Amino acid sequence: MDSRADPLMDVFQTGTRGPLFFMHIPKTARMSMRQYLSDQYHPHEICPAERWHDLLDGGRDVASYRLVRGHFRYNMRELVAPDARMLVVLREPLRRTVSALRHLGRDPNFHHTYRIAKDFTLSEMIRHPAIMAYQRDVQARFPSASMPPAAVTAYLRDAVARGEDVDAGDLEEPPDFQRAADRLETIDFVGITEELGTLVSTMAWDMNFHPPLYFPCINENPDRMDPLSGLTEAELEIVREHNQIDLQLYELARKLTHWRNFDRAMRHMLRVGVYQVQPGSFEIRMADIIPGSGWYPAEHDGNMSWRWTGPGRHATIEVPLRRDVSYRFDMIFVDPRPSGPENLAVEVNDLPIAFELWLEDDSYQCTLVIDQALLEKSSGFCRIRIDTGETVQLDASDLRQLGISVRQIEFICLEP
Predict the structure, then answer these.
(1) Exposure string (b/e) for 311-330, b if CB count within 10 Å is 16 or more?
(2) Are residue 312 and residue 372 in the same domain, yes or no?
(3) Which of 85, 192, 281, 413 is the most buried (most CB within 10 A)?
(4) What is the domain extent for residue 319?
């Protein structure tokens, strides 16, 4: 029965969600994200335009819509609602490029280079300079776009009048990594296709979207295979050469998403009192809870306790610190490898940090300084990431992959 036929039947009400601009880069989970986002807004709140050409009819003002999503670049931000938040998803660049080429070969509406690519094999497309020119650092082009919207509109209108097939990005300068990186930092929701679930959960919480029990994983690849399957190393190298900036940007996006999740979790644990900022120096007791990951359970011998890192080569210590002082980080450990910790590396908040390392008796001591300026930038949140370089299996009776055996960790507050 149609409920509209009964004037006494109530209608389920949904409140208004905040405006969102989804800057969709081709071949980065468009269909999945589009379906999910479309279910969060009333139909009249969703901008029907999905590319700049769709705006040339001069219809309704873009800023009047609450959801704008399509193949628009960063410069579209000038036209959306001033309080709109922004979303972008990046994909591992080699797979995104090859997925785009495979799509190009089967879809005449995907890109105007289809007329060249339609009779080509994937290998021939990869080796074709004209086709690959349009696949160079595609992801970095989107946040790099800086052309004023009025100039883009005028350019497209003139081209349409002449019957030319052009793109809104034709007027842009080649992508610049630093510009793209700086703008990525300003985007509210940055995700990668490999971790869409985390992104959608975060966005649902922040935007009052309905949290999805089933996220629509819609794959435009009919074979559902790894796009890189069957490529030779020479072909992969060509694709890699066309994605040098995108590879850097993707790595930045990956780190940015992980950091934002860490920042959100730390703020929550401080708010509910699970963690506290210690006023002075403190130690991390190996027998107690370790605020981090990549550690085996504590082991004991009398009053001594220690923890092995593993099974992977990375382990972290993640703590809230004061933002008005610097700290010295001291770690005492044993390394079972004959070569010792020659491959040891340490990062603080994703930045490689120089450290001092010396051997005393049978233990090594690693010491480094956590600068106050770094803590000020991160609101005092500190992630120390230890890379042991490799792991080892000590003997046949212990199947664990072990890194280093940490005996002591201290944060020494360096008061001015």
Answers:
(1) eebebbbbbbbbbebbbebb
(2) yes
(3) 192
(4) 282-414
Q: Does residue 89 share a domain with residue 14?
A: yes
- Domain assignment of residue 275, yes or no: no
How does strand 345-348 pair with strand 381-387? antiparallel
Q: Is residue 151 included in any domain, yes or no?
A: yes
What SS3 state is found at 288?
coil
What pLDDT score does 222 carry? 46
Q: Are 86 and 189 in contact (CB under 8 A)?
A: yes
CATH code for the domain in which residue 404 is found: 2.60.120.260
Q: 78: number of CA atoms within 13 Å, CB side?
A: 11
124 and 76 co-located in one domain: yes
What is the spatial distance between Cα 47 and Cα 62, in angstroms, rounded to a whole number? 7
> Residue 298 has what pLDDT?
96
281 — phi, psi (to 5°)?
A: -70, 155
pTM, 2 dp: 0.87
Supply the DSSP symbol for 328. E
Separation between Cα atoms, residue 326 and residue 371, nearest integer Å: 5
In whole angstroms, what is the distance from residue 306 CA to residue 220 CA? 50
Cα separation, 312 vs 323, in Å, equals 31
Do residues 16 and 64 both lie within one domain?
Answer: yes
Number of domains making up the chain:
2
Which own/partner pairs from 197-200 qualify as long-range (CB within 8 Å, at least 24 positions apart)? 198/257, 198/261, 199/89, 199/257, 200/36
